[in-house]
Amino acid sequence: MGNKVISLSNKIAMVTGAGRGIGKSIALGFAEAGADVVLTSRTLSEIETTADEIKKIGRKALPIVCDVGKSTEVKNLARAAIDEFGQVDILVNNAGISPFVVPIEDLGENGWDKILNINLKGVFLCSQEIGRDMIKRHSGKIINMTSIGGVVGFPGQVAYCVSKAGIIMLTKMFAKEWGKYNINVNGIGPGMVETKLTEKYRDNQELVKNRIESTPLRRFAKPMDIVGGALFLASDLSDYMTGQTIFIDGGRLVA
Q1: Residue 6, domain member (yes or no)
Q2: What pLDDT is stored for residue 249 in this prediction?
Q3: Does 200 fall in a domain?
Q4: Does residue 253 lie in a domain region?
Q5: How far apart are CA 12 and CA 131, in angstroms?
Q6: Which residues pair with residue 31 across a beta bridge?
Q7: Quick one: pLDDT band at residue 3, thresholds 50, 70, 90?
Q8: CB under 8 Å to 91, separation ≥6 — which residues?
Q9: Fewer Cβ atoms within 10 Å of its own Cβ: the N or the C terminal residue of the chain?
Q10: What confidence score (pLDDT) does residue 43 get?
Q11: What is the pLDDT, as a whole number, of residue 1?
């Protein structure tokens, strides 16, 4: 059989939340593997920077501003991507927020809605909209970024953890219903990753000490630690895998 090399040559990928952190690293990793990439976030300057880096690799990049929690903006995003490239072969639902830590009894409705709209509703809307075109072509890969917080929960982050647990179930449901269209839907659940999103948590030295001591590999992830899993799920190496979530967490769940 020989060894297969991961290649995304001639593929079009879309990465949400691609301006920084995990999303940016995945977008660059996909470009290095041969894909052209549609980049989206709510901040144009960030995805323009990512686009410039992708172009230096020699691949095409299309930055589009989009709030994934708003259906009209997601429809415009999908239309622009397909108009430019003809199709989207790979969708990475990475956009997410975790803006505060607050006890359950103090969490307001607006805070709940803000997190659920981006983290969970955004995954549903983007998958649904891009998925319609994948259904027509009987081909596609969808990768949803969840978290170990969707399994074990973090104190003070009920909305975030519920949203990530919801993504795990969304992944299963899309996989169950769309397998007949040859669409693979899988998830990645990172542990603590050193990104701007987690800065405020990593400023807490006691939390850092406890988290690292409870992680068998004794360190937090870098964004690039997540890219290998994304490349696997985006490539033909994962063609017989769907509905699963890979936890890239340094072993924290088993500990």
Answers
A1: no
A2: 94
A3: no
A4: no
A5: 14
A6: none
A7: low
A8: 13, 14, 126, 127, 130, 131, 140, 141, 142, 143
A9: N
A10: 96
A11: 45
Question: Active-site residue among 160, 181, 201, 240?
Answer: 160
Q: How confident is the model at residue 4 (pLDDT cuts 50, 70, 90)?
A: low
Dihedral sign from CA coordinates of 20, 115, 169, 214: positive
- pLDDT level of residue 195 (50, 70, 90 thresholds): confident
Active site residue 181: no
Spatial distance between the Cα atoms of 48 and 41, rounded to a whole number of angstroms = 10
Bridge partners of 13?
A: 37, 90
Half-sphere exposure of 68 (CA within 13 A, CB side): 31
Does residue 79 belong to any structural domain of this protein? yes
Q: DSSP of 59-100, one letter per residue?
A: --EEEEE--TT-HHHHHHHHHHHHHHHS--SEEEE-------
Residue-number span of the structural domain to which 110 is assigned: 12-193+222-248
For the chain, the domain total comes to 1
Contacts made by residues 165-171, CB under 8 angstroms, sequence distance 24+: 166/116, 166/119, 166/120, 167/93, 167/119, 167/120, 167/123, 168/245, 170/120, 170/123, 170/124, 170/127, 170/144, 171/144, 171/146, 171/243, 171/244, 171/245
Q: What is the mean pLDDT of residues 151-177?
A: 96
Report the alpha-carbon distance of residue 186 to residue 93 in Å, rounded.
11
Above pLDDT 70, what percent of the chain? 97
Q: Any idea what the CATH number is for the domain that residue 116 is in?
A: 3.40.50.720
166-185: average pLDDT: 98
Please give the average per-residue pLDDT across 98-117, as a whole number: 94
- Structure tokens belonging to residue 53: 């880096």
What is the rounded distance in angstroms from the CA atom of residue 240 to the CA atom of residue 5? 17
Output the pTM of the full model.
0.94
For position 192, what pLDDT does the model report? 85
